[in-house]
Amino acid sequence: MGNISISSQLTDLDTAVEKIEAGEFLVIAADESVLTQLPSGNWIGGSIPYFMGEQGGTVSKEQVFIQTVEGIQGNAQPRITPYDVKSINRIAQDAPDNGFTIVILPAGTDVHADYAKNAPGYDNMFFTPIVGWISGMHLDDVENSKAQTVFGPGAMMMDDKAIAMHVALPENQVANVQTINLFEQGKGAKIRFDQTGFNVDACTIDGQPSSLTQYVKDNNIDTRLPLVADYNGINVNVSIQSVNADNIDLYAPVFADVEYQFATPVADYVQSFNQALETQDTKNTAFSCNCILNFLYSELEGKQTSNLIGPITFGEVAYQLLNQTLVYMTLDNQ
């Protein structure tokens, strides 16, 4: 078995069709209108029209971002597996002993919520690298469309299932998962919720029954800052999608009886993000995705993020679900 690598390119529909028909193993990100035109083959896909390409950040409903798994030989072919809310807990058990898994989950679904809440406790989790992203749609279309994933072998669109590609590596290679998160818990009010969900309002704030919507409005909270929970020493962000008249929509669910605080403000979002990138060794990067909110708040359209190119998404996976975090995976010799 030769070394595995992943090449990435932002390209067009015709190129995507050619690569699928050639039998290549692909991870594809594109707007739903493009995904529905792709033939069956060795690929997984998810809906998103935001990308970080070689020329910089791009918004397009016509272009296609393709990550091609190269170096596959013989019987060691990647496995493509769909997962629903009842089977997603098997994802780490299905992973190869030495390799990695790329997963795409549709935003706002039960399988998304289950992964967000329970992935750290799934059997075998953290033994094999799992990276991936949350599919979505153009922000103008949030009210009237659903996030999609695609089971490539059947060219089957799915709005309620995750899709994963499990890739084995030779003994001399290892996959390593890295993240860049600018945020940590702030010093403000401690917020708890009675219910788990993507849409919230009722909560306790420093122990007193309250409305989160009213609290955000009364205190002029900068909603570019996520709610942050400390999960065993790891800061996990829950990002705000929109503040409505009497509730708040989130990009990831908050969980009942978990303590959240709004993140410490970041003085200069763009500068902080670029500084964080400069401290990372990204030369062997094989996979990358970044959050739609980093894209928006760092004004990345037309700008480049080092050599890290990939889909810009509604959430990121580095073993567990993350928000407002850049995730990348390197393939290194060992």
What does this structure look like?
This protein has helices spanning 13-21, 32-35, 91-94, 110-118, 212-218, 269-278, 292-297, and strands at 5-11, 25-30, 43-47, 50-53, 56-59, 64-70, 79-83, 99-106, 130-135, 149-151, 156-158, 162-168, 173-180, 191-192, 197-200, 202-205, 208-211, 227-231, 234-238, 240-243, 248-254, 261-262, 285-291, 310-313, 316-318, 320-322, 326-333. The chain has 334 residues and is mainly beta. The longest helix has 10 residues, at 269-278. The mean pLDDT is 93.
Task: Give keywords.
globular; 6-stranded mixed sheet; DUF6976; 334 residues; single chain; 15% helix; 7 helices; 2 domains; mainly beta
Radius of gyration from the alpha-carbon trace, in angstroms: 19 Å
Spatial strand arrangement across the major sheet:
1-6-2-3-10-11
Q: State the separation between the terminal residues, measured CA to CA.
A: 15 Å
Structural class category: mainly beta
Can you summarize the main beta sheet?
6 strands, mixed
How many runs of DSSP E, i.e. beta strands? 27
